[in-house]
Amino acid sequence: MARILILVGTESGNAQMVADALKPVLVAAGHKVDVSDKAATVGDLEAHEVFLVVSATHGTGEIPGNMLPLAEALERERPDLSGHRYGVIALGDRTYQDTFCGGGKKLDQVFAACAARKLGERLEVDASSQPLPDEEALGWINGWKALV
Ligand SMILES: Cc1cc2nc3c(=O)[nH]c(=O)nc-3n(C[C@H](O)[C@H](O)[C@H](O)COP(=O)(O)O)c2cc1C
Known about the structure:
- There is one protein chain.
- The protein is α/β, with parallel strands linked by helices.
- The protein has one domain: Flavodoxin domain (Rossmann fold).
- The protein contains five helices and six strands; from the N terminus they run E-H-E-H-E-H-E-H-E-E-H.
- The protein has helices at about 15-30, 40-45, 70-75, 100-115, 135-145; strands at about 5-10, 30-35, 50-55, 85-90, 115-120, 125.
- Strands 1, 2, 3, 4, 5 and 6 form a six-stranded parallel beta sheet that branches.
- Helix 1 runs parallel beside helix 5.
- The longest helix is centred in the first third of the chain and has 15 residues, at about 15-30.
- The structure holds flavin mononucleotide (FMN).
């Protein structure tokens, strides 16, 4: 059993919908799961072994505003997260081309820079071809949860 924190970066709710769909799957696998759509702190991270970042992209490849305080704190403080593991689900839209899934990609880099160990490959969900991001995420989580 792991303590998992799902970190939701969202402006208009899709990432929250994905997190809400995934939480019961991880709970059914025996994990304790918290979901945060507020600005989680570095202390919140340290209380969990595993993080699952579920983040949209806004602006021009940017991290959603609700997730920015945490991302900036991690960049500034660089806490040692080497005892922690993480996964990333990035939501984006391929019509944005060069900045596709930029928010999730940036958060992936931030956690890697703090030495957290990534579990599996990042899932990138394209809103222009996939109107139901939770369905794609539910397929991905089966492989990911086996790595936790
Ligand atoms: C104003 C705006 C800017 C966006 N910019 C990007 C972008 O630069 N790259 C990208 O891949 N997707 C971009 N998107 C698409 C969103 O990331 C995508 O629709 C996502 O599913 C929204 O999730 P949310 O409802 O959790 O905020 C943008 C969407 C909006 C409305």
